[in-house]
Amino acid sequence: MVEGTGELALNFIRQRVAGVLLAFGLILALVCLTAAVMRQSVLTTSKVPSYTVVALKNPTVRSALSDIIVRSVQDKYPDLAHIPTSQLHSAVAQALTQPSVISEVADVAQQIQQHFVGVSKQPIVIGGPALSKAVAQTIAPSNPTLQQEIDKIPFSYDISSSSIPSIGKYYPWIIKSIRYSFAGGLALLVGAIAISAKRSKTLRKIGFGFIGMSVLEVAALWVIPHVLLAHNSNASEVVLSAVAAASVGSIEPIYLGVFGAGIAAVVLSLVL
């Protein structure tokens, strides 16, 4: 009787310890996944131009940038009052589909990303000669005089460095956290399984945890950028949101890997 009671007490303690290890292990796994997704989406400079090309295929992104640029130009150049705002907006949005203009915006997106990670602090301008020329050709294709007048106006929007969010001081920590949180999380989760008196149940919890965090991260990365695009007038945040939204496809292997590991853990727990 005493021996049975002692075994029950031991199993109880093992389950509690396993539960603590499991909880902290899943937290570290979530930290690792989040940091990896951030690195792959908005922290990798070399990928930003390609994400920008994808982002500008989205009418919502083009519309958001057009609104910002047109408002800026109208404030600076009252002489454009004779051209309807809707016509200017349409011309800028159309210009954002042209390769030369897309290249200009891609360069700007890369500069904003460099500000975001704390590499650069120089002022940034969205737009340039290619955008001005494209807008002029769209608005006045058969009126050379008006086309020349519009072409001289820099269709652009100045972004001050202070308006760009920066994670510069956290950037090294985010990169390092991927390695450390992966190693720590793996050790804790393996420890939880080894100590647990109900290993199949613990393994199942790990599986559902992986599935849940992968779904949560996908939803967050899809929903948050789109909400920011729809309700944001800050040019830098619009661009960053567009880049983040466009990067979803590139991080599918990460999500699928975590989701697949979760499914495997659940299936394995049912077999044990």
From the structure above, extract its key features.
272 residues, mainly alpha, 2 domains, two-stranded antiparallel sheet, 11 helices, 3% strand
Counted by DSSP, the helix tally is 11
Low-confidence stretches: none
The tally of strands reads 2
- Helix-strand pattern: HHHHHEHHEHHHH
Name the beta content range.
Answer: under 5%
Commentary on this structure:
- The protein folds into two domains: 146 residues, no CATH class; 118 residues, no CATH class.
- Helix 4 packs across helix 6.
- The longest helix has 40 residues.
- It has 272 residues and is mainly alpha-helical.
- It is built from eleven helices and two strands.
- It is elongated.
- The chain has a two-stranded antiparallel ribbon with strand order 1-2.
Helix-strand blueprint:
Elements (H helix, E strand, L loop, with lengths): L1 H40 L6 H8 L3 H18 L8 H11 L3 H18 L7 E4 L1 H11 L4 H8 L4 E4 L11 H25 L3 H32 L4 H12 L5 H20 L1
Structure in a nutshell:
The protein is mainly alpha-helical and 272 residues long.
